[in-house]
Amino acid sequence: MNRERKLWHYYAVVGAVLLLALLTFFRQRPPMVPRDEMHRPVLERVAVRTGSQGVEEMCAECHSPQQIPLPSGHPTDGKCLTCHPAVP
Ligand code: HEC
Ligand code: HEC
After folding, report:
1. C-alpha 30 – ligand 2 centre gap (Å)
2. Whose CA is nearest to atom 40 of ligand 2?
3. 59 lines ligand 2 (CB under 6 A)
4. How many CB atoms lie within 10 A of CB 88?
5. Which of 36, 38, 52 to mutate to test the pocket of ligand 1 (most atoms within 8 A of CB)?
6. How many CB atoms lie within 10 A of CB 81?
7. What pLDDT, in 10s, does the model give residues 50-73?
8. Contact, 87 vs 35, CB < 8 A?
């Protein structure tokens, strides 16, 4: 491999890393689970640590396409709490 090609690879890698860092920085941050009456039962479950299993199923009871649709392109798998912190 000649010198120019090696250098080109180097620039490509550095560029990709920089782009990724910028994208992460400017990405919309997920809002926290609100500490209101609506979410009190959910937050209480998290506080008691009955294991956060089952808690995320509760989210879907209200945050469903029928009631409160999530924004388009928003993930719908059950991993709500990994992105939305729930502070009891
Ligand atoms: C009893 C119904 C109900 C349940 C269960 C519920 N939510 Fe909500 N959620 C709401 C309603 C209604 C709103 C909009 C009004 C508000 O902020 O309370 C909302 C708003 C939100 C918001 C937006 C807050 C903001 O600042 O824009 C997030 C994030 C959220 N919920 C996450 C969750 C997660 C995660 C769970 C499961 C752990 C969950 N919710 C369970 C009813 C519910
Ligand atoms: C990969 C991370 C991620 C996961 C997983 C995730 N969310 Fe979100 N959520 C976000 C981000 C980022 C936003 C803010 C940008 C937006 O509105 O799309 C958001 C916004 C929201 C909002 C506010 C919507 C509005 O109209 O203001 C609600 C409610 C919500 N999420 C609920 C949930 C629920 C319920 C789950 C589980 C099914 C969940 N989220 C899983 C990242 C995530």
Report:
1. 6
2. 80
3. yes
4. 14
5. 38
6. 15
7. 555 678 888 988 998 899 999 988
8. yes
Within its chain, how far is the Cα of 83 from the centroid? 3
User: Which pLDDT value is given to residue 53?
Assistant: 64
Residue-averaged pLDDT of the chain: 86
- Check if the beta carbon of residue 88 is closer than 8 Å to that of residue 33: no
User: 16 exposed, middle or buried (CB, 10 Å; 0-12, 13-18, 19+)?
Assistant: exposed
Testing ligand 2's pocket by substitution, the residue of 42, 64, 79, 83 carrying the most ligand atoms inside 8 A of its CB is: 83
